[in-house]
Amino acid sequence: MDRFVIISGCSGGGKSTLLEELRRRGHQVVEEPGRRIVIEELERGGSALPWLDAPAFARRAVGMSISDRSSAASAPGLVFFDRGLIDAAAALHHLTGEADLAVLGQSHRYNRHVFLTPPWPEIYVADRERRHDLSAAIAEYDRLSSIYPSLGYEVHILPKVSIEKRANIVLSVLDGA
């Protein structure tokens, strides 16, 4: 769907801060499935966590991403997704070989412009929900950097500039689309 815009990239690269700025400017934002799943699993003592059962975690992320797309269909205007179905399916495919990325990539399209936040070691912080190290985050970023173009998306690597400038870049690209 052309109104659905993916903000993806390296963990700890500033995605959430960018999305908060886009929300502040009046846009609809869908929170990252992975963070929501980790919080739910930690609260209930579950095991679908990336450090305990990564395939179960990725399967939940795929399901949640599909549900998020359905829920967002009624929202007006642009809807920005903090990661989304392609990220979740790419993780599942990497872990298990499951998830046909080509099929999912065609049946659940997003705006052709995808914005990636590159690795930014100076701001990377592990926390309660993000326990992987920077090298794992960079490996995931590298996978996503090749997967999105292979599915026909035009990837825009966001520069390491202020959050206001990043938001302006995103909106400028989309205004010119």
Automatic annotation (TrEMBL):
Spans through the membrane: none
Protein name (record): Putative ATPase
InterPro entries associated with the record: NadR/Ttd14_AAA_dom (IPR038727), P-loop_NTPase (IPR027417)
Domain NadR/Ttd14 AAA positions: 5-166
Source species of the chain: Rhizobium paranaense
